[in-house]
Design a protein that fits this description.
The chain has 214 residues and is mostly helical. It contains 10 helices and no strands.
Length: 214
């Protein structure tokens, strides 16, 4: 029987992933207005500090912002950006496959989603989000062991992947491994100290463990 907490978590993360559309700037700042060109304006080289960031650099910036966030609302906004950053593989084909797989997951067409994600992982085996999306689809298709295996592959490539960490913790909780689940929730909180989902889950498990000790 699926854990209600895990279903709610997967639903919220999946819906958030489905809601994000075109890529945005990692620093979440509006682009400056275009400047008028003049005939005598000489071309200028782009400063090094304005060079496009790699996906790894963009995610590192977002993790740094999470660590410095002041409250849950700010954290939630940054996590939305991070979900979007996870979904950028650098391959238009892989990105399209992920989009189609997420649509299939949203429609509860899990076998179709899994076929698409099998192709995604084969195409981009080093892309953490391909494995994470398949972990979600496998769980929802009642393949818990397969889901945990894909979570492990996700974290091998992106150790701070928040969706994978929360999925792992919730599966551990559903299997009665309360202390192990709490450790993973606390690991997520080290990355995002004000993330309400992780804090509420950790608090609930602490209360459960305290009750067992009485």
């Amino acid at each position: 029987m699926r854990s209600r907490a895990l279903l709610l978590l997967l639903s919220s993360l999946t819906l958030a992933a489905l809601a994000v559309g075109a890529p945005v700037r990692a620093d979440d700042q509006p682009a400056p207005p275009p400047q008028a060109k003049t005939d005598d304006a000489a071309p200028q080289d782009k400063p090094d500090d304005q060079a496009p960031k790699t996906p790894e650099q963009a995610r590192a910036d977002l993790y740094a912002r999470l660590a410095a966030a002041k409250d849950g609302d700010e954290t939630a906004g940054i996590i939305t950006l991070l979900l979007r950053a996870y979904a950028e593989s650098g391959s238009d084909t892989a990105d399209l496959l992920l989009q189609r797989a997420r649509q299939a997951i949203g429609a509860e067409e899990y076998p179709d989603a899994l076929k698409i994600l099998d192709a995604t992982v084969a195409l981009q085996p080093d892309w953490a989000e391909g494995w994470n999306a398949r972990a979600t689809a496998r769980y929802l298709d009642d393949d818990y062991d397969g889901s945990m295996a894909d979570i492990a592959q996700t974290l091998k490539r992106e150790p701070r992947h928040l969706g994978a960490l929360m999925g792992m913790a919730a599966i551990l909780e559903a299997r009665g491994k309360t202390e192990d689940a709490l450790k993973v929730y606390e690991r997520a909180l080290k990355i995002a100290p004000h993330w309400r989902n992780a804090q509420e889950a950790a608090d609930r498990l602490k209360a459960t463990l305290a009750g067992e000790e009485l």
